[in-house]
Amino acid sequence: MKARESLTRLKEFQVREKQRQLTQLQMMMSEFERMTKELESQIVFEEKKSGISDPSHFAYPTFAKAARQRADNLQVSIRELKVQQDAAELALAEVQAEYAKAAALEERDSSARLRA
């Protein structure tokens, strides 16, 4: 009796934890995308200011090069976080299924106890 209740609470906790992790990944991705857009606008501004938009040009602004590299690194991080997000979504679905089973078993047991 108590074991089923404990199992249900454990599964419920796991579901909430996976949802929290998923939300955190999504927030990180959106923050990285915002940072990338900001860097890209700064790159455009620097290119207009210097009049040079070719990154291979010898006089290309150093700040624009660094910002471009940082934006590229953020894009790589976003792709890696997307992979982690996909894995977290699968894990969440599994834990939700386990929680549903545990809740159904607890419901069945409590119904049997009431009938007895």
Instruction: Say how many strands there are.
Output: 0
- State the secondary-structure class: mainly alpha
Outline type: rod-shaped
> Into how many domains do the coordinates divide?
1
Helix content: over 70%
Organism: Sinorhizobium glycinis
Keywords: Cell projection, Cilium, Coiled coil, Flagellum
Protein name: Flagellar export protein FliJ
Any chance you could write out the topology, listing elements then pairs?
Elements: H1 2-50, H2 62-115
Protein name: Flagellar export protein FliJ
Coiled coil: 15-98
Keywords: Cell projection, Cilium, Coiled coil, Flagellum
Write a structural description.
89% of the residues lie in helices and 0% in strands. The protein has 116 residues and is mainly α. It has one domain (1-114). The protein is rod-shaped. Residues 15-98 form a coiled coil.
